[in-house]
């Protein structure tokens, strides 16, 4: 059956996540072109990809759709006014009136033009069967579509596409970073480790940028922060800058800061009614005896506010020992917490790995002989653990309370139920992947794919003179 087309038609490009566009059908033009901005190639030279934004509705520049595609070529295209431009060329499927076929598209800036899509002669000739007949005096001979589809897309899961993802880390060669890169690349994404400490920022209202090694970094669809405790302040400012550029950050800067500050984290957990070991904090040396007494009969735990991997955590067997440790901490001008010792936990805790709103893996960690800390970095051992529904719910609630999309939640099993010991915003993957036999890194990327927006509605800027 011959496809009848007018000089303008509604088309869709489903593989690019563009359900409705108005296209000018121009048999005088050899190539087809699609409006694109922020055009950025990425990926390996052997298999390059292209990432670009498009305003599918010419009259609505606030509606942006981001697309990814494999690069076919980069070729010279001469426009009707005789100007030659070198354009990226991609292949994608077009749909008109229920008929689908692959076409080649060149990417160019058509901002300000009536049509953000031009359908040229080559695309018509590639139609399977007899080439479509085009009437230059008629329009919309095929069923009309509707721009309302983009409003619906804003509330839907993003279109599956190749993503450009940054892993912020000072340790690109450790197990967790390598696994994240492997998992992302296996799912067709491009994953780039970036040394957080080497980033610097250009902060302005028009085009905020993150710079690295003398150049502005490209736009990233998503960022996985792996911010070490030694650079919490600067690292979170870099994450905040990536948020400003529009990248989806698996853990936001404010969530990382809350989780890293143990006092703040415990206050948030308490506010949300989440069970945890009884905790006390005081600033004045005059209150040392009072906060120790709040814990009841020793032993008690003393913990630096920004301790990690079990470092800066001390078990005081007696009140006198607790007073001595507190005095030492105060001499170092270090902030610390005094915490209930959950004896029935028996030197064990349960690490729950939360991705999104789900516990995806769990392991039981057991302290080394003679130690009370179950951290693997302190010689603890791990094995896969089956957790209860209550423990699962507590872990998810704790991560959600702190706003973390990817977190390690440590639980103590007590006589009064599961208690949240700590929430880690940069959990290691090695122990939990090896003990649980689960591909946690892959699950992180599944979460990113559901959250890295492909359709964005931006607030239109108002000039100072307006």
TrEMBL record:
<keyword id="KW-0648">Protein biosynthesis</keyword>
<dbReference type="GO" id="GO:0046872">
    <property type="term" value="F:metal ion binding"/>
</dbReference>
<dbReference type="GO" id="GO:0018169">
    <property type="term" value="F:ribosomal S6-glutamic acid ligase activity"/>
</dbReference>
<dbReference type="InterPro" id="IPR013651">
    <property type="entry name" value="ATP-grasp_RimK-type"/>
</dbReference>
<dbReference type="GO" id="GO:0005840">
    <property type="term" value="C:ribosome"/>
</dbReference>
<keyword id="KW-0689">Ribosomal protein</keyword>
<keyword id="KW-0067">ATP-binding</keyword>
<dbReference type="InterPro" id="IPR004666">
    <property type="entry name" value="Rp_bS6_RimK/Lys_biosynth_LsyX"/>
</dbReference>
<keyword id="KW-0436">Ligase</keyword>
<dbReference type="InterPro" id="IPR011761">
    <property type="entry name" value="ATP-grasp"/>
</dbReference>
<dbReference type="InterPro" id="IPR013815">
    <property type="entry name" value="ATP_grasp_subdomain_1"/>
</dbReference>
<keyword id="KW-0464">Manganese</keyword>
<protein>
    <recommendedName>
        <fullName>Probable alpha-L-glutamate ligase</fullName>
    </recommendedName>
</protein>
<dbReference type="InterPro" id="IPR008503">
    <property type="entry name" value="Asp_endopeptidase"/>
</dbReference>
<comment type="similarity">
    <text>In the C-terminal section; belongs to the RimK family.</text>
</comment>
<dbReference type="GO" id="GO:0005737">
    <property type="term" value="C:cytoplasm"/>
</dbReference>
<dbReference type="Pfam" id="PF05618">
    <property type="entry name" value="Zn_protease"/>
</dbReference>
<feature type="domain" description="ATP-grasp">
    <location>
        <begin position="266"/>
        <end position="449"/>
    </location>
</feature>
<keyword id="KW-0547">Nucleotide-binding</keyword>
<dbReference type="InterPro" id="IPR041107">
    <property type="entry name" value="Rimk_N"/>
</dbReference>
<dbReference type="GO" id="GO:0005524">
    <property type="term" value="F:ATP binding"/>
</dbReference>
<keyword id="KW-0479">Metal-binding</keyword>
<keyword id="KW-0687">Ribonucleoprotein</keyword>
<dbReference type="GO" id="GO:0006412">
    <property type="term" value="P:translation"/>
</dbReference>
<dbReference type="Pfam" id="PF18030">
    <property type="entry name" value="Rimk_N"/>
</dbReference>
<keyword id="KW-0460">Magnesium</keyword>
<dbReference type="Pfam" id="PF08443">
    <property type="entry name" value="RimK"/>
</dbReference>
<dbReference type="InterPro" id="IPR021109">
    <property type="entry name" value="Peptidase_aspartic_dom_sf"/>
</dbReference>
<dbReference type="GO" id="GO:0009432">
    <property type="term" value="P:SOS response"/>
</dbReference>
